[in-house]
Amino acid sequence: MPAMPPRAGLPGARRGARIAALLAGDVDIVTDLPTQDVAKLRSNQNLFVLDGPEVRTIFIALDTRSDELKHGQKGANPFKDVRVRQALSMAIDRQAIQRTIMRNLSIPAAIMVAPGVNGHTAELDKVAPANIDGAKKLLAEAGHPNGIEFTLDCPNNRYVNDEEVCQAVVNMWARIGVKTKLNAVNFGPFIAKIQNFDTSAYMLGWGVATYDAQYSLQSLVMTRTQGADGNFNLAKVSNARVDALVESMKTETDKAKRDAMINEALTITRDEVLYIPLHHQMRPWAMKKNVTMTHNSNDAPKMFYVTVN
Description:
Elements: H1 12-24, E1 29-30, H2 35-42, E2 47-50, E3 53-62, H3 82-90, H4 94-101, E4 106-108, H5 132-141, E5 149-155, H6 162-174, E6 179-185, H7 187-195, E7 201-207, H8 214-221, H9 240-249, H10 255-271, E8 276-282, E9 285-288, E10 291-292, E11 307-308
Parallel strand pairs: 5-6
Antiparallel strand pairs: 1-9, 2-9, 3-7, 3-8, 4-8, 10-11
């Protein structure tokens, strides 16, 4: 299962009840805040909103290995062509998703690990603006001037605004002629579906419990074998150079050499578009003004460090 399961999956009614209890003074802290409520909570003089990033990256995965898509157009799998993957990534306006759907509670992502994870650098994670004309050109060069068709599987109760983000991505892909059917379902049937490889494209989020990029690279990007290697590589990604780098970083004790391996592996993953990162989640917490605590980037409050004045 994905590490550090997010707490964004509470039913809306339960979240609303907890926020109402906070406003009424019946509870001290609420950490599962819908993005649409954060501004209102910030303006309440009796409350304090503690901001903080989460070491979790939300991304799109594509079946890059099957000869034909299980849930998509007939014929050769278009995702095998890096130009198609580049076009799909290039068409996504991550800043627009950050500004509108996420209400600035996300960090647009170019790589598969978030700030705070060893191996992340601002240079690697620099997000380019959407380029519709460039994406169309790449699709045409790949032999798809009229676009492609496939289904995107998405959870609708797991990550922050997950279904809304998926719908935005679908709409952005439509601008380059890509016809995407959105299949948004509860996380239970969703995760069973993708773990059975019954998918051609899906959204997922990945948190880094070890705060080191090897965790993501080994789980998501390494060729799936046994044990931890590729254990959540449900997109069938495979790159021999990344495999060799991750294998070496497992035992490398020289920090500079190991960090260089991580940098190269993350660069290959980004440039080959082995996955399409969307954003790193932000997870604000709201509390009474008399409560003091430290934000934890795994989205798990440590109550031992909470003080109430």
